[in-house]
Amino acid sequence: MRMGRNFFYAGIVAAILSLAGCGGTDVVPRDNSGTKVGVAMPAQQLLRWNRDGAYLETELRGRDFDVDIMFADNDAEKQKTQLEQMIGEGCKVLVIAAVDGDVLRPVIERAQQAGVTVIAYDRLLMGTDAVDYYATFDSYAVGRMQAQTIVDKLGLAEGKQGTLEIAAGPMEDSNAKVLYAGAMDVLKPYIDKGQLTIRSGQRSQEQCATPGWATLMAKERMAGLLKQYEMGSLDAVLAANDSIALGVLAALKDAGYGSAARPMPVLTGQDADLPNVQALIAGEQTMSVFKDTRLLALETAKMVEAIAGKQQPEINDTQNFMNGKKVVPAHVLKGTLVDASNYKSVLVDSGYYSTVDIDGTASRALGVK
């Protein structure tokens, strides 16, 4: 299994490099040779992080950095060990998409003591002043987009009613908390008025959390919740991301949803992963949020280059990312809602996926557990 993932990752890197050779990127060679950058990604088995890792590696190597990239298999202790290794090997900058920031805090603080600059990548590192910068998408806005889709599809603003269940992200992920807050700011008034009924009674993020964003855990939990709907139907599921949505979708299918008599509920997601794009096209998932990780990798690489040149990185938010110890200066990008009506223009025409990808070759190779 590991070998297959490594080949898949290498294929992504090769594809990106081929695009760069055809003028797909605009990287001016610079003399950053000898400057080592450590890139710590959560999990190679998720397409999202495969792409992030590949784009980051390409952008950084294109700027002549020495790049050490490691994937932690969603194991926080393993990621901690990897970061210790990166510090020991002389990395001057660490780009970290944390599995669990609490576990990583001691090693991040050792990095600070060693003079290493730390960039939190799309997951804010909490409870420490040892994080220097943050590169991310606006998760609060993503949560609002997901929730607004439910409001619109169920006609809640027109006074209609519906049933809802929530499949949130993990408690240890700061983004999951922001995402949940954005969604609940939209949905809470309808829940409080009784227009949206949560039959399970599970409403808090802690009650609805999915450890590790794991598809199988999401499936198992949703299978249990669906017992509340043996009489009547579930109208909407607020799924925090696409890996969770896949698990929810599998449970829904097992329970007989997807027929004329029992249509699929409104189902949200984010990341626009290939299996989920196929689900959008098939009418099984309602929406996802596309976060163009090419742009996030580009902005992160520009941050690293500024740091290496002893310059101030480009920052567009100095107010909103308090991690409990400091407000972390950030570069924030926006996501784009994608559904069956616009996936081609957003994902294919932009070059993020090919028509072959969308037809299923790559997503079937990854598989859905």
Provide a brief overview of the structure.
This protein is an alpha/beta fold and 369 residues long.
Description:
The protein has 369 residues and is of the alpha/beta class. It has 2 domains: 173 residues, Response regulator (Rossmann fold); 164 residues, Rossmann fold (3-Layer(aba) Sandwich). Helices cover 45% and strands 14% of the residues. It contains 14 helices and 12 strands. Helix 1 packs across helix 2, helix 3 packs parallel to helix 4 and helix 5 runs parallel beside helix 6. The longest helix is centred in the first third of the chain and has 20 residues. The protein is globular and about 65 Å long.
Task: Give a topology summary.
Blueprint: H1 2-21, E1 36-41, H2 47-62, E2 66-71, H3 76-88, E3 93-96, H4 101-113, E4 117-121, E5 133-137, H5 139-154, E6 162-167, H6 174-192, E7 196-197, H7 205-208, H8 215-225, E8 236-239, H9 242-254, E9 266-267, H10 274-281, E10 288-290, H11 293-308, E11 330-333, E12 336-338, H12 343-348, H13 355-359, H14 361-366
Parallel strand pairs: 1-2, 1-3, 3-4, 4-5, 5-11, 6-7, 6-8, 8-9
Antiparallel strand pairs: 10-12
Helix pairs in contact: 1-2, 2-11, 3-4, 5-6, 8-9
